[in-house]
Amino acid sequence: MTDDQEFIKNDLRIACADAVELVTDYLDDALAPRDLDDFQVHLGLCEGCQVFVDQIRKTVTLTSQTQDLTVPVEPANMDALFAALDEKRTD
Amino acid sequence: MTNVLPPNHPDAGTVAALGRGDREAFTCIVTELNPGLTRLARSYVPEALADEIVQETWMAVIKSIETFQGRSSLKSWIYRIMLNKVRTLAVREAKIVPFTSVGPQTDDARPSVEPERLMNPDLGQGYWPEAPVRWHTAPDERVETKETLERVHAAIQALPAAQREVVAMRDIEGWSAEEVCNALGISSVNQRVLLHRGRVAVREAVEEYLS
Q1: How many CB atoms lie within 10 A of CB B123?
Q2: pLDDT in tens, B61-118
Q3: Is B119 helix (H, G, I), strand (E, B) or coil?
Q4: Range B12-92 classified under CATH 1.10.8.50
């Protein structure tokens, strides 16, 4: 059993606790080549971290869907801003 | 007074036009940036105050366009003006803790997954005992319900300001990492730490809601 455990650990390269900290760096292509290699090998073998990465991706999608599209396209008093702009023209 | 940026600066044309008082150029950049500016401002202070801040921001842009030196994009510069104003106001309104929290958060040491969830009986501490429950188990089950999105929105609002800004810019407004670093004046490492902390907190809120 002990040998098996060591074998599995080596295969996974890094602990899940470390892998989950690297997800945003991974998604941003910001991992150093060595870390990227370890992360990808780990991910290929670890369903838990695969689900976690999927959930972070999904979180990003959900976050983008919270964008409030009802905000005003123009500031409250465009006329005042145009007036300030006009002053520049006569400077 | 006109501002002459290096001709190869991507915003040179717009900046020169604003310096001349060109309404069309101004309307163009307002249309592009006003919604995002307003959304971010409203994450700090109530709507009416936020909208005032955005109005003041545009006034400041017009009045001080000559001081823009082109070290960042015009967009970053405008966001910085808005953020300086809204942070000051938010502190005064005591809506948030004083903005000394820019930069790494005090909860940095908090792991992305609680250690007790990473207790594998065979592999030991730091490994999933089993995979977390997937969010879309049934093919027709949709995660993107109105209720879920409300939970996501609430979770974002509850983030520390520094995390909320980065999450809003990256994941709501769709900015690049570099743009966020420029607008907030933070390092790329810091940007990713804040983004990751924010995303992790939102993920937790969704997980809690769906379970």
Answers
A1: 17
A2: 999 999 999 888 999 999 999 999 999 888 887 645 444 444 444 455 689 999 999 9
A3: strand
A4: no
The domains of chain B are located at: 12-92, 103-133+140-210
In a mutational test of the B interface, the residue from A55, A56, A78 whose CB has the highest number of chain B CBs within 10 Å is A55
* Six token digits for residue A58: 């999904």
- End-to-end C-alpha distance for chain A, whole angstroms: 84
- CB–CB of A74 and B199 under 8 A? no
Listed residue (A61, A66, A7) closest to B42, CA to CA: A66
Domain count, chain A: 1
CA distance B101 to B83: 14
The pLDDT tens digits for B165-196 are 999 999 999 999 999 999 999 999 999 999 99
ipTM of the complex: 0.86
Q: List Cβ neighbours of A9 (8 Å cut-off, separation of 6 or more).
A: B123
